Amino acid sequence: MTDAPLDDAVPDIDNPHDWRARAEAAEAALAREQHRAAELAKHAELKIAAIRAGMIDLDGLKLLDFEKAELAEDGSVPNATAMIADLRKSKAWLFGASSSSSVAAAPRAQSPRARHAREMSEAEWRAARASLIR
């Protein structure tokens, strides 16, 4: 924030140039922030593709030309895998084994549940009893 008094922050209503200048400045700031957000989205998508490709050191992303990354309407980078594949061909030492991880969640672990004698048939109960007595 500026140190100017609050009265200076309110534009002069009689001066239309002040409003126009403020609107142009706001539009320029909006364009800068949209560009910055797009660059962050590109970087994140390329980072995801690099991790999936098995990149060992993500500092290797600095070797990519981020200007070649094309941001789609949905925020994805369709050519990210191709860019990482090209990097893998030229700088194979940056990569280890490919990650086989998927986006699906692993099932929850369940502890083994002992079967009760009431749930067993007589033959199953006799077999279980015989294995415990041994």
Write structural notes for this entry.
With about 130 residues, the protein is mainly α. The chain has a domain at about 10-100. It is about 50% helix and about 0% strand. The protein is built from 4 helices and no strands. Helix 2 crosses helix 3 (about 80-90). The model has no long low-confidence stretch (mean pLDDT about 80).
Distance between the termini: 81 Å
How would you spell out the order of helices and strands?
A: HHHH
Strand count, sense and barrel status of the largest sheet are: none
C-alpha Rg, in Å? 31 Å
Let me know the number of strands.
0
Helicity level: 40-55%
* Residues in β-strands, percent: under 5%
Morphology: elongated
Count, helices: 4
Mean pLDDT rating: 80
Low-confidence runs:
none
Counting helices, strands and paired strands, the structural category is mainly alpha
Indicate the topology.
Elements: H1 6-9, H2 16-53, H3 80-90, H4 122-133
Give structural attributes:
elongated, 134 residues, mainly alpha, 4 helices, 0% strand
Task: Sum this structure up briefly.
Helices cover 49% and strands 0% of the residues. The chain is an all-alpha fold. The protein is elongated, with a radius of gyration of 31 Å.
